[in-house]
Amino acid sequence: MELAHLNIRAILFDVYGTLLQVGPPPPDAETRWQQLFRDLLGVRPPLSRLEFAVASSKAIVQRHEAARARQISWPEVNWPAVVAAVLPELTRLSRQEQDEFLFRQIQAGHTTRMPVETAAALRRFKRSPGLLGIVSNAQAYTLRELHEALAVHGLDLALFDRDLCFWSFEHGFSKPDPHVFQILTARLEARGVQPSETLMVGDQADTDLTPAQQAGWLTWQLRSATAQAVGPGGN
To answer: I need a surface site. Which of 44, 48, 173, 185 has the fewest CB within 10 A?
Structure first.
């Protein structure tokens, strides 16, 4: 998509499937799972990776149902709370250790990378006068995954305006809820940027493009070469 002829003053990106390609678990996923528990809890895993996935999925469903009963149409879970419900041992760790556990746990479940072409595009956008932001169904570990992927290419999260970053885990609801785009539209308008001057870049029509268009934004569909399920907060 050629942007030069468009009056775009803000570009907001989806993360998984757009900025980051998501692949299958690493070949040594089972070893990582075992080592994770030994390193941080000093025990063998009480659940296999499959058993953990089943139990955490059930916990997510329960939380989603409870949220929908309170008229939250597109709920988002807090992943640390889900994991702690499935693995109570986690609560024995310090906050820093819990964050490390959760990051290593998700790294055993999938792989992520930022394509060279994506990094090059971000570098070009960085040189332009416009604003950059994020609209992501995400968990706290997403920020570290994105930080590490950007660092490979000499970039960092400071590239994105913090006030224009919507991380669903911080709000308890997720795309395609129209409130996501309303919040960001209000923040952009406070800076003098109109919806017609805002571009949403994402890979999913239902969660990225359609709700952005309904908010009056321009859209650009960018599909990563690899698409995998990425867990809670992953669209």
So the answer is: 44
